[in-house]
């Protein structure tokens, strides 16, 4: 939506003074604009930024708000404005007040897979019987983890659940079984939480659940936070679950002393009930806050009137469970852009013809001058997205897909690595050994190894024992390598072992050499990189990060799954976008095809959960019914189209055997299907067998609109060697596990806590506490031996008192962990980062960076590193743009050796770096990644 002046209703929302307010913002009416403008207005009226709190759901949405606010108030990209995701805010509050509810302030956060691994490793303590089938004791864990998550989101404590379960009737066997089931679930839920607390672990739900617990148990903390946040705003309020809604209520309290709460949302766009959201929160807001003002935004700046009228016709069928009906509102949207063309519905004979017709229609549009990036295709299912993707491939139409959800653990290169780990751990695993020798790690002749496997099977001996007797040098060399790896099992974590396998087998070098010129190989590198990150997560959540432990847990990890990173949506500006309907929320295109609109497919009413929280316990609204949510999904899909909405369906499935009816939503839209039964596809999808070759693009994390966004360290990597930058940051290649990063992070966190305390005028943590923290948190992995680890940790403990004494004597810095995000002038580059400390100088400031290297032992070396540091020069560029400062010095403080150097940054040096950064963005956008001049530290071959 283009930037426009505020209309009357928007101004009323932006100018809201005190008390609660509900802003009902229909599709395309500028809901984000209201929050941005209100935040900017409060800041301009001298409300402290720290008193403003805006909450949203995704990092992307939070960042967009930050950028838009900062553009209006200070051009510093809003780095100190409290705009957070719900989870990010909760984690921040827990970190600050953990001790108030008996928690450590350095909890270990685990994700969805982590919960399942944790439950498996503590299976006996959960004391399962009803949910522990003898044949597959792991089989229920993922379901139980999801159920526990839903209980937290509904704010059902183990005590509440247990008390309820005890009241269930037990007059017959069926009732007794049901009662037993819920009593066991309540008990296991309580034990799961207790084990997590005992081991100082939290999951994503805990980031909010514990925050709610804190505010309920500690009235003094609740008061403190209410006094801190005078103006609270919530985006996409219709998507909140009971836990998030309770957090908002607790933060706002009674709203006295000129405080305000503004929630913005649209009940007609609530499509996330399947993940815990309930419309009860927005439908009953005015009942909860009887004094709440209510504003409805109905002027639409995105769509044409014909699209809006059809969408309004559809959504009326969700009455009476809508705000328009319940609160007597007018939600009929009025287009700012005129009537436009009528939406159309086209019915084809079979699904293949439907998809082929869409492809041909797109070609006609392109021939008339429409851009690929102005077109989207939305489908209800991943299966249909995949089918559309294949058809567009066949028609050679440039496109990007999102929502396919390929699983990491289904990738061949990952299965190969897991087979190798199995072969190393267990010599008797014939299948794993066979795949390892015949696969890419050793590439042994598959016919020969198959014959050996046949003989081993007929003789009923281990393939490994049979091959040991062979004189084939390739076999002997491969078995010796596997034996060497086996001898290291007790010394290496699973991640270290996996890296050793890739390196010693020579496969890593092969992949790297091919990756720059072969997209399929490059995609293998990306997949391996994500797998190594998952191994790192596994090492954090398991009590024993060994290869054996990983293999024991692999079945539950694979059952849980891990979706491959999908950046395509962020870079689809020059391509047709193909995605599931849920992925399209918040996006818009000129022309939108909504495909596969047949009954039973859409609305999709199947696939209910295996475990349901009893209705007596959960917050539920009639508006949350499955059919109503599916109708809202059609409403959201239709309103993604700015100019043209095209709906398609087919009379038969692709096989031609199953007769299909149009979706009832078509009639509810007020539309009728135009039959295109005579259409003949110009392509045969059945004969299309071309393998999909992945396109390697700039990751979404490096894109922001038309700009490249880089951290200072990423930009430094490009300046050092663009080819190395490609491997590290475009492919994200896996690097050898080491302790350097973890040690650096530990030192930085400790130094930050000391400096921040001094800035706040409070007592810094004592030396004793810090030494205990070093001992407890020193990294376990990345060392070749335990002796080496112990020596490095002892060195840190022995030398930290000297550093502590120096830090305590130094004046408090002006700022610590100073964030910046600035646009480099005359370029498409946004540079971001954090400066460790900014100190006051006699004239101007000193930008200080702490380093933990132990090799810089002289002042001369420290001065040389400081003078030539590209990263420090970039910090100076950022500081100058942010603060219009000319007197800038930079410093490297080598905290483990005591060497400190300070260098004056000349203006010509700052200007020179600005020119280099301008070139960086140009070259990355051109996919220019040439070799640098020095490769001593490069990870590419």
Description:
- The model is unreliable at 567-572 and 686-691 (pLDDT under 50).
- This protein is α/β, with parallel strands linked by helices and 941 residues long.
- A hairpin with a 4-residue loop joins strand 21 and strand 22.
- The longest helix has 26 residues, at 173-198.
- It starts with 7 loop residues before the first helix and ends in a 16-residue tail after the last helix.
- It is globular.
- The protein has 5 domains: 8-98 and 214-298, P-loop containing nucleotide triphosphate hydrolases (Rossmann fold), CATH 3.40.50; 108-199; 302-405 and 569-606 and 624-697, Rossmann fold (3-Layer(aba) Sandwich); 408-560, PCRA, domain 4; 708-925, Alpha-Beta Complex (Lambda Exonuclease, Chain A), CATH 3.90.320.
- Helix content is 47%, strand content 14%.
CATH topology of the largest domain: Lambda Exonuclease, Chain A
Total domain units: 5
Give me the side-by-side strand order of the main sheet. 13-14-12-15-16-11-17
Judging from the principal axes of the Cα atoms, what is the shape? globular
Q: Note the gap between the termini.
A: 46 Å
Supply the helix-strand structural class: alpha/beta
* pLDDT < 50 stretches: 567-572, 686-691
